[in-house]
From TrEMBL:
Keyword Magnesium on entry: yes
Pfam families: IMS (PF00817), IMS_C (PF11799), IMS_HHH (PF11798)
Family: Belongs to the DNA polymerase type-Y family.
Active site: 109
Organism of origin: Pedobacter chitinilyticus
Upper taxonomic lineage: Bacteria, Pseudomonadati, Bacteroidota, Sphingobacteriia, Sphingobacteriales
Gene this protein is translated from: dinB
Protein name per UniProt: DNA polymerase IV
GO cellular component labels: cytosol
Residues flagged as site, Substrate discrimination: 18
Protein role: Poorly processive, error-prone DNA polymerase involved in untargeted mutagenesis. Copies undamaged DNA at stalled replication forks, which arise in vivo from mismatched or misaligned primer ends. These misaligned primers can be extended by PolIV. Exhibits no 3'-5' exonuclease (proofreading) activity. May be involved in translesional synthesis, in conjunction with the beta clamp from PolIII.
Signal peptide positions (record): none
Amino acid sequence: METPKLRKIIHIDMDAFYASVEQRDFPELRGKPLVVGGSPDGRGVVATASYEARTYGVRSAMSSKKAQQLCPYAIFVYPRFSVYKEVSRQIREIFSRYTDLIEPLSLDEAYLDVTEDKLNIGSAITIADQIKKAIKDELGLTASAGVSINKFVAKIASDMNKPDGLTFIGPSKIEKFMEKLPVEKFHGVGKVTAERMKMQGIRKGSDLKKLTEERLALLFGKSGKFFYNIVRGIDNRAVKPDRETKSISSEDTFGSDLDKGSEMYEQLLQITQAVFKRINQYQLFGRTLTVKVKFADFKQITRSISFEHPINNENDAYQAAKTLIEQTDFDGKLVRLLGVGFSNFHEPKPKQRNRIEEQKLLF
C-alpha cells in the first residue's frame, strides 16, 4: 500500500495587525504603547494592542479601563476598518500567488495548504519565508508563520517566535514537541479545561498521552478523542477555503455556582463582550441571539430572540441577553454555566458600521 503523502500546511498570523497598520501609517505612533479600540475614559474593549503596550500586560478583549490602569500612558485610537480591509485584501493577494487553498480563521490569521503550490517551489518553509518577505517589503508589516504537516501543529508553531517569526516543526519532532507542551498551550484548551486537566494531574502533553482514548472521552466528552489524537500529532482536518460561519458564541463555566443576581449579570456582560470580540473580527452581525444556561444539576436550557435588524451594538446585545435571563424561571436553581451566541447573520452596509463593531473577516 502506498504511503499517504504528507501535507504541507502554513499558518500565517499577522503581528498586532491593527496596531501595526496604525504605526506604519502614523510615524508619531511608532515605538509607543498603542491601544486600538476603546477609549481612555474606560469605555469599550481593546481590539488589539501594540507590542509596546503588551509589555504592560495590555491584551485584546480587555476592558479599556483595565488597559488604562495597566498602562497610563497608552495612546488610544479608533479602528480604521476601511484601511484594514484594503490591507487584508493585499495580504490575501500575496497568499493567492502560492495557493488557492486558503482558510481564514479571523481577521489576522489563515491556514494555507501548499502541498501542491502554484509556483512549484516544493518547500513550505521557503514559501512561508517568501510570504513573510512580501508582506514586509510590499506592505510594511510583519507576520509570523508556523509550518508543519497539519493545522494544529502549524498554528502552535506560528505563536512560538512572535513577532516576525518562522517556526518549522517536522514530522519526526512532532510527538516529542507535543509531549513537552503545557496543556494551556494546546489550541482549543481554554482556562476552564486546562484547570480540569491539572486537577487530574495532566499538566503537559506527556501526561495527556498516558490516558486512553476511552478515559479522555469520559473526562472531556467529545473533545477527548481530539486530545487523544493531537497529542500524538494526528490532525487530518483539511484546509477549507471560504468556510461559512453559521454561528458565533462564547460561554463560561464558573468555579462556584451563581444565583440569579448581580454577580451573574456581571458574568453575562463579560461573556457578551467576549462573543462580540469574535463578531467584530468576522463582521457578522446576527438577527438571532441565544442565551444558554446550565444549572448546578447539569440540566440545560436555551432561550432565543430574533430581531428584524441585526444586533451590531454590544450594549444592545447585553440588554437583550439580560432580558432573556430575567424572563426565565430559575426555580431557585444555581447556575453552573452561561453562554451567549448569535446566528442568522447579516453583513451590514457601510453606513451601518460602528467603530469597534466594524471588524471584518478579511482573509
